[in-house]
């Protein structure tokens, strides 16, 4: 699977997601009340937090269980499938998460039907080996409802070095 195909697949996913999010989905009041607990943003945040906790714990099996089989992971200008992430990038993410504390700012969550997206910013500071890390990051996670829970369908990470102010 080429990068072009992966990007096209992800863009197709976004187009469908945008279309579905624009459709009118009125529900009866009793169905709305029933869904209020299912649409609780805290449940979405809990899944994202549990995924990150698994990375910090070095628990690759648990981390991968939060990812859908067709997940798209976007970082550093590239796109990865679940199998590519499992065989390469995952180990580095776990080592990084274990070595450096990440301070996440408030997470914003939107839920529309069986799709949710959450975004936040964070700072990571410390030393990894002989490398000094001082970065600001952003994360966007798209999730889909699966039974009574949520599964991660896409993650987009970006970061940049925090530059010291010029004197």
Summary keywords:
167 residues, alpha+beta, Nuclear Transport Factor 2, Chain: A
Q: Could you characterize what this model shows?
A:
The chain has 167 residues and is an alpha+beta fold. The chain has a single domain (40-161), classed as Nuclear Transport Factor 2, Chain: A, CATH 3.10.450. Helix content is 43%, strand content 38%. The chain is built from 5 helices and 7 strands. It has helices at residues 3-22, 29-38, 41-57, 60-65, 82-99; strands at 67-75, 78-80, 102-104, 108-112, 115-128, 131-146, 149-161. Strands 1, 2, 3, 4, 5, 6 and 7 form a 7-stranded mixed beta sheet that branches. Helix 3 (41-57) crosses helix 5 (82-99). It is globular. The N and C termini lie far apart (49 Å). The mean pLDDT is 83.
């Amino acid at each position: 699977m080429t990068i072009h195909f992966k990007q096209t697949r992800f863009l197709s996913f976004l187009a469908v997601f945008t279309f579905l999010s624009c459709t009118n989905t009125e529900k009866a009041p009793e169905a709305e009340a029933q869904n209020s607990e299912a649409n609780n943003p805290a449940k979405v945040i809990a899944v994202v937090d549990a995924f990150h906790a698994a990375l910090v714990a070095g628990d690759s099996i648990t981390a991968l269980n939060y990812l859908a089989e067709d997940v798209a992971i976007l970082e550093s200008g590239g796109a990865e499938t679940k199998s590519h992430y499992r065989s390469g990038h995952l180990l580095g993410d776990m080592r990084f998460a274990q070595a450096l504390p990440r301070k996440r700012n408030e997470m914003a969550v939107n839920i529309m039907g069986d799709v949710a997206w959450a975004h936040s910013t964070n700072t990571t500071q410390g030393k990894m080996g002989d490398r000094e890390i001082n970065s600001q990051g952003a994360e966007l996670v798209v999730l889909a409802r699966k039974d009574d829970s949520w599964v991660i369908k896409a993650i987009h990470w970006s970061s940049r070095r925090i530059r010291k102010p010029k004197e």
